[in-house]
Write a structure and sequence with these properties.
With about 350 residues, this protein is an alpha+beta fold. It has 9 helices and 15 strands. Bound molecules: 2,5-anhydro-1,6-di-O-phosphono-D-glucitol (AHG) and manganese (II) ion (2 copies).
Amino acid sequence: MDGNSDVRLEEIGAYITLEQFIIERQEELAHSTGAFSRLIRDLSVAAKIVNWHMRRAGITDVFGDTGVINVQGEVQQVMDALAHKEFVRALRRGGECCLIGSEEHSEAIPIRTNDDGEGNYIVLLDPLDGSSNIEVNVSVGTIFSIYRLPDGWGEPTVEAALQAGYRQVGAGYIVYGSSTILVYTTGHGVNGFTLDPSVGEFLLTHPDIRIPEDGKMYSINEGNYNSFEDGLRKYIKWIQLEREEEGLPLSTRYIGSFVADFHRNLLKGGLYMYPATRKSPNGKLRLMYEANPLAFVVEQAGGAATNGIQPILQLEPEKLHQRTPLYIGSKRMVETAHQFLRGDRDLK
Ligand code: AHG
Ligand code: MN
Ligand code: MN
């Protein structure tokens, strides 16, 4: 490493690994026994393995689809299946998880084989987010959400996983981008760790992330404009007004990998929206795998996440794979979008 590349680590006190960090923070967790720390470690191991596959994509044969239509009705990519397999394998081996729900698997996957008290965490996963981007070298990611098996539950079943987002005990994501970064929260702020490929460790590079209250960027698939509800169409027209004194217009940034759009907006300020459309009347994104975990992260960073009416974290889930409209990002931007959606505000 040259002098310059060390600068960021020097700024923050240098070389705190994810492993050290979770051990130091363990006492913040209620009923901490070390099991949760081991669970995060297991997820980070899977992330490193998926990252390794990703870095060789195009050289090894991991592009293309599997020929399977997944439970979402979407074409499953080879990397979707591979990421799913690696995360399930790491969680199974780790022994702290009793049940997995995955976007790539129609049923919940029970892990615990007996009820000897081991493995009390439920993990819900989008193993590979943005997978349709993978063949063209665009950032993709993994999103995870963690719950506790409710006390006295017995054998873990899918109903145990159907908990509202505010009951998450941890959540986070990995972006496999220009570098690989893991960001997570346990309800005590948000921290980000960049994978140093030379030593194979996630190092703390983004301590205590706060999302700016307001932002200059909005992310939405505007190709669906004609099927948005009226209030949203007005909001977008307002965003595009040439009113320098009000900080308008904003810039559009839409990668088409939710986790990558979210990560940029988290660091720079911005709003990501995936509303209801004619084609997807409940929105496209999944409540349990995408909306809830990133809603927990964004709230912990000082931002907001709603379905256009209510906070995402308050929604009572009915199904593992259910979808929800989503407005997520800088607090003030979410509030302004709501004013337009409610019809309290107009273009003037
Ligand atoms: P996934 O790859 O896990 O199925 O998620 C794809 C999602 C999300 O990542 C992205 O923001 C959105 O789909 C893009 O959808 P559109 O192509 O409809 O804009
Ligand atoms: Mn996704
Ligand atoms: Mn996915």
